[in-house]
């Protein structure tokens, strides 16, 4: 694989623009759900699938998307994902029935599953290991988390000013621009040593297993952990994932090379992010409910109320990218987790007669500063110190940890909230929210324990040494 110099920051802007669109779409739909329900005649039970259809396919195809980028070319998969995502966004905007919208949302999830791992692996192969990659991943972290909060603001504004259809139409010009910019400016990279073998059995079992797992988690939040369909989904997931492990251990060209999990830094970063995202993802969900149902904020005002969160994430991600090379990735991530835990514990004390400024904002600021400081170091640990041919796989694993972790956490915490909600009064709902936030703090606390117990200083010594070097950024070209 040859190297030549170019301006990597132009590549980063294009990649982050596309990733911003993907992350934005995960939350922009939330505040428009009541309007979508009225317009297309969704029932209360079916409305959740506007969100879940996207999450299911996104999580299920991430590993396949990551490895396909290594084999076929990351730029190529990135551009294919952009075409699918942009086309699905337009189709969502013109959907005339609930079934059409759910189907096109699933197609959007497929596009996102190709874009996200390809985007992260392009960053990892574009920026040489060192300070430049740390800075680039700081920007990536700000986009990856901050985009979720921006989605709430933009979703509220577009729905209130125009209609819910514009939350999908807004992706079309962005996707078209990103496609042609990537075609011209983003270099191609791939695993030149691969034998072009396609592990079809592995792809089918892991994709089916992840989709069954996420489906079971989604169903459990609505129908309980003991429902027949939930149990069947979990059993199917366990059987398929077990089959996948057997297939990968025997395959000459595996989709996921199992030996990659022997890299202690990668394994720990994925487990820690899985647990952290299990707790962090719930902050948006339960805070949105509290701000709208308890404080009485409308869609636009509720979205604007998350702007301090976006600012906090961007600030802390930038600070983390500078501090991690100097004081170490473990201390920075650990401090971020402590701040997040304190923020979640403040949320666990939200009162029925609370106010935004005194009860929501303090916890939001602490949680946002913590999340930015968590995401950047763990991304660096999970994607550094690997061969270029494994970057797509590592990126797919890291994205999968976040998506499945978020789905698991939301399912568990929703169950906790419902079990502690005695009645339909506002006070009963708030009591459930308090327990959910406390549970989220416990999950992030477990992430902190995993980080401190399993990630030793020698495991990240090379990563930190390279992050302190001042190597120029380089672009890999096929």
Which helices and strands appear, and what pairs or packs with what?
Elements: E1 2-4, H1 8-28, H2 33-40, H3 49-72, H4 74-93, H5 98-126, H6 131-161, H7 166-169, H8 171-185, H9 200-223, H10 228-250, H11 264-294, H12 299-304, H13 307-327, H14 329-347, H15 356-383, H16 391-419, H17 426-454, H18 461-468, E2 475-477
Antiparallel strand pairs: 1-2
Quick structural overview:
Helices cover 77% and strands 1% of the residues.
Give an overview in words.
With 478 residues, this protein is mostly helical. The protein folds into two domains: 2-198 and 253-477, MFS general substrate transporter like domains (Growth Hormone, Chain: A), CATH 1.20.1250.20; 199-252. Helices cover 77% and strands 1% of the residues. It contains 18 helices and two strands. The chain has helices at residues 8-28, 33-40, 49-72, 74-93, 98-126, 131-161, 166-169, 171-185, 200-223, 228-250, 264-294, 299-304, 307-327, 329-347, 356-383, 391-419, 426-454, 461-468, and strands spanning 2-4, 475-477. Helix 9 runs parallel beside helix 16. The longest helix has 31 residues, at 131-161. It is globular, with a radius of gyration of 21 Å. It starts with a strand and ends with a strand.
